[in-house]
Amino acid sequence: MVQQQPQPAFYMFKCMQSSPPNMPKPSCVRPDNRDHFQYLAQTLMQKGIIATVQPIQTSCLGRCNLGPVMLVEPGHYMYTAVDKSGIDRIIDEHIIGGNPVEELLIQDAFWGDAIPPSQMAR
Ligand code: FES
User: Is residue 5 one of the residues assigned to a domain?
Assistant: First the structure.
């Protein structure tokens, strides 16, 4: 008999894009924060919620000037300027506590409503 495997309750998409040297636009990964995805995964493991929360490394999420960024789903919660203390707060307050961390959420001016699929085609 096959035991049903539950879906993750959350996905945490951590931008791990690093730009080549001399690239004019900034990127989320720099020499001083290359270990932040590992830190995210280890913290989820230490708290015993890695089976419920799926950490995912992504490339650019399109908000490079506000990085390092991390998108939490469900809900399209885009976090900016995420460092290790931000990762701790997002896990403790948003994932475990159910309260998104307002101070780290992207400002509305940079995160307008999504374009509905019906209006995407030109
Ligand atoms: S490099 Fe991270 S959002 Fe573009």
Answer: no
Q: Is the peptide bond before 68 cis (omega within 30 degrees of 0)?
A: yes
- Residue 65's Cα: distance from chain center in Å? 15
Domain count, the chain: 1
Distance CA 15, CA 11 (A): 13
Cβ–Cβ < 8 Å for 26, 65: yes
Per residue in 23-62, pLDDT (tens digit) is: 888 999 999 999 999 999 999 999 999 989 999 999 999 9
- What does DSSP say about strands 70-73 and 77-79: parallel, antiparallel, or unpaired? antiparallel
C-beta 87 within 6 A of ligand 1: no
Q: E strand or H helix at 79, and its extent?
A: strand 77-79
Residue with CA nearest ligand 1 atom 1: 27
CB of 55 closer than 6 angstroms to any ligand 1 atom: no
- Whether the pTM exceeds 0.85: the reply is yes
